[in-house]
Amino acid sequence: MGRTTWFDVDGLRKGEWTAEEDRKLVVYINEHGLGEWGSLPKRAGLQRCGKSCRLRWLNYLRPGIKRGKFTPQEEEEIIKYHALLGNRWAAIAKQMPNRTDNDIKNHWNSCLKKRLAKKGIDPMTHEATTTTSLTVDVTSSSTTSSPTPSPTSSSFSSCSSTGSARFLNKLAAGISSRKHGLESIKTVILAEQPREAVDEEKMMTINMKEKELISCYMEIDETMSIDELPCDDSTSGFVAFDDYSLIDPYRDSVYVSDFYDETEHLDLFLL
DNA sequence: AACCTTCGCAACCGCAAGGAT
DNA sequence: CATCCTTGCGGTTGCGAAGGT
Q: Where is the composition biased (Low complexity) (predicted)?
């Protein structure tokens, strides 16, 4: 199975990889390590573009890749992480180190998405399609009507509420780093919003959201040990995503605890 | 047996972010 | 500061296999 082989205008080979090409790539990387994909093909004696080599290595040749059928447990994991992270396949793949993002994405698109839809669950919101979907947005007027938390009713969506998630994440990052006062954080973030997006009503909602976020953030005591962090707590709605960050799926937000101040960690969640 | 449709998956493409110059 | 280059990501496509009629 695969694509037919052809050559582009620069004489670079496209389409299916041969066993000989795979061998050359593996031998070269084993000898010289990763990096400099642009010049790698020439040095490895391959008539491919660097991008193609990189993809082949990451999705197929790299050691430790698990191939073949997904187990029910893996499928459950994908659904769980998709509910939290949306279509961020690379982020999901980081939680499942033996599977590639491409593999996960393919399995989701060809199988899991349809399966959820058949069950009456919206694959994007992970909510029952028969009930009204509640998606938090900075434009929403009410912030007090979060649904009863349950692992399958998350409204963490990467599409319908991208703006609000980005806003809240940046705010959380700003608070977390304590580099700026709240007002300056807000000013910076609002400057990034499209002009028409910041009307008076939205400002009020943002202010309300800000207070809500701060109060939520304060629930995390910096003196807490990792084990004491809220985890799948039906009262708070927090889900401990890893040792240092919490997701509040009902507010499309991520909170990073204060004792971990490397903001790059938060990048995983930025939409 | 022939044809059509769906599935599964490897690979491509365009875009964006970040670093180097 | 601007431009170029590299790397990484997500959406989409192409195509053989499998299944259905």
A: 129-159
Express each pLDDT in A23-47 by its tens digit: 999 999 999 988 889 999 999 999 9
Q: Are residues A78 and A47 in the same domain?
A: no
Query: How many Å from the CA of A20 to C1' of B20?
Result: 34
Q: A132 or A83, which is more confident?
A: A83
In this predicted structure, what is the pLDDT of residue A243? 40
Same domain? A24 vs A56? yes
Distance measured from the CA of protein residue A50 to the C1' of nucleotide C4, in angstroms: 17
Same domain, A208 and A258: yes
What is the residue whose two structure tokens read 């040749």?
A61
* CA A143 from centroid of its chain's CA atoms: 24
Task: Decide: pTM greater than 0.90.
Answer: no
Q: Closest nucleotide (CA of A51 to C1')?
A: C7
CB under 8 Å, gap of 24 or more: what pairs does A68-74 form? A70/A99, A70/A107, A74/A99
The CATH number of residue A20's host domain is: 1.10.10.60
Which of A19, A41, A61 is where one domain is finished? A61
What is the C-alpha separation between A83 and A153, in angstroms, rounded? 9
Question: Integer distance in angstroms from CA A117 to C1' B16?
Answer: 31
